[in-house]
């Protein structure tokens, strides 16, 4: 199922980059013309406005959305995804549908295969970082390295991030009270401006 969900708050971080520690986010695929990476916002929404400039870069997210059973419906408790740089694919035939191609692979691999393995299988081998989102406390960030240190993306990287072309990731409509949390696989494109 292809849906067009947007991150409800497209977020802008004003905090300066923290210089200590490992790099926040390592670009491995630079210097591409992103002007062909036109971001099509869903026509039926009026909340968000696409920036007039080309994106700084575009990422393919491959990961899971996590939900807990709250009463008899699922509530989101976070997400984690590997982010592959697809900026240089803009303008190629792969670009428009890469989230579908990646989802078909991701959905069929055994559970032992990590999301980090999916990009290379669909022509997007450049793992730039990790998107890590938990709802409580609200944190939104990118992990630059394996391990679970959270680094917040700050002004240097991008001021606006749009998640569009999300495939799957939605929970079943209901759950049996007391059932354990679930992870639902998804893919998406992230446009950073
Ligand atoms: C826009 O349309 C898509 C696809 O039909 C739908 O999934 C989404 O909920 C709609 N969004 C809004 C804000 O109406
Ligand atoms: C989501 O669930 C996966 C297991 O499927 C776990 O590895 C990950 O840490 C969870 N992340 C969040 C943010 O809940």
From TrEMBL:
InterPro entries assigned to the protein according to its UniProt record, in alphabetical order: DUF3455
Record carries keyword Iron: no
Pfam families to which the protein is assigned, alphabetical: DUF3455
Keyword DNA repair: no
Record keywords, A-Z: Signal
Extent of the signal sequence: 1-20
Domain of life the protein comes from: Eukaryota
Protein name: Malate dehydrogenase
Source species: Mycena venus
Origin organism lineage: Eukaryota, Fungi, Dikarya, Basidiomycota, Agaricomycotina
